[in-house]
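Let's sit down with a protein and look at its sequence and fold side by side. Go ahead whenever you are ready, and we will take it from there.
>
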Amino acid sequence: MAQSISKSPLKLTEASAMLYPPLPLYRRLLRAHRVLPRDMRSLGDNYLKAEFRRHREVTNPVYIMGFLSQWKTYLDQLPLDPNSKFVGKKLDSTAFEKMSAEQLGQLYELMHAAKDVWKPV
């Protein structure tokens, strides 16, 4: 995992200034998916829409900050050029250790959905 440059923890107001509001972030993600192959775009769009719908009623600011920051990180990893190949990245092992049973179940379902999309015919 990347090391933080600052030694002091980031305050909630400072962190929120670095993030996009939910709706513009959602739109940017959908636009960024346009450069992906059709199957990947479909899978990504459906997952994105479901996650944002599922978190629409969340009121905990810390949880919202984490949710938005993870989607912003994902947005930063997506290719900008339609001709570039999206490679992705491996999930850090410490991230697995921090996941709840529900999150691991969702990740497992996503893995199988992705494998079904890319299954050789």
Remarks:
- The first helix runs from residue 12 to 18.
